[in-house]
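Chapter review: from sequence to fold.
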Amino acid sequence: MTATFEEKLQKYASLIVNVGLNVQPDQEVVVRIPIEAAPLARQLAIEAYQAHAKYVHLFYQDEQITLIRFQHAPRDSFDFFPTWYADALTGLAEEGAGFISVYATDPDLLKGQDPELISTAQKVAAQHTRRYAELLSKDYAPWTVVSAAVPAWANKVFAHLPEDERVSALWDTIFEICRVNEPDPVGAWRLHTEELARRSAYMNEKQYVALKFTAPGTDLTVGLPEHHLWTGGYGKTPDGVRFTANIPTEEIFTLPHKDRVDGVVRATLPLNLRGNLIENFWFRFEQGKVVEVHAEKGEELLRKLLETDEGAVRLGEVALVPQSSPIAKTGLLFFNTLYDENASCHLALGRAYRTSLQNGEDMTTEAFAAAGGNDSLIHVDFMMGSSDMDIDGVLPDGSTEPIFRQGEWAFEVS
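The token string follows.
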């Protein structure tokens, strides 16, 4: 018997609460979600309380209000940010609350808006929420990022379908990619995350000094710091509670050495940056720093991003994703970083996760930087993998071993 939409939504919410966040008894839960996804918000609250959460804090988000601000607010008001909101997030994270962020945006929301104002708003928000972002980067509090089918996003992904079919088509795709259609979605996810953990363990044992990426338009060497840690599938809070930061997730990732990235990398998918699409872009790195950037569309906004702070021109993440991932197999461009990054190997400009370096959570900012870790207000992923990509691991003696061949893993794990 085919499951109804309501039954699938319940399974999806259960997956988010029990695998994504792994809610613990007496824990507070924060849900940030588009207002169009209210049915999912309600189901998340049900699942959280059934997992014995103490309280569910709900923050509805309305993108049209964001757009209205850019259209009508005073031009000199964009350096304002509501401190109560930043204080609330930080305080809840310090108390160990769990955070569910439902990322479902209109890829064209801020198309045509002033790039300077967009850059200012983003930078001010990042400055005010820096402490909160640092706590999550250290896995101090559990967090998970998921998506929901909302009309503006569905209209972009499924523009070829009749309008009244687009949202349901996107929901069907989300359910399939997130293994909601499996008889036991929670069990299926636990098996999947264990496989990613085994691949991470393999790479941690190797401790390559660098990775070499080769593909059309890409010839890049990414140095890796000593004692770097690959992570995949799940993270752990300081008291050992597992959580899955992204649903879906198909990646394993670590941090590059901020001063040892050299060569050229070409993006293979557009980047949705603050409601604008950046298309056909590439970077050239020297000694870890972006020294040249070009984009066919959105170059000014991309340059503004790189001007955010000193760390914005360096890398904070390198992630490996095979082309056989469920997201890549759909053949769809999602215009949504959560989904597109799990269809492709990717890099991130900006802040590195402290958990990607041994004892990184306990290091001072200076010690983390000295070890090769990057710090920044931003963390922006861009996709650069393809079925033509080869990746080699560089050993301390300079010899190399295959990691990827033609976009697929070149080693097996058991």
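Two observations follow directly from the output. The first strand starts at residue 28 and ends at 34. DSSP finds 13 helices and 20 strands in the chain.
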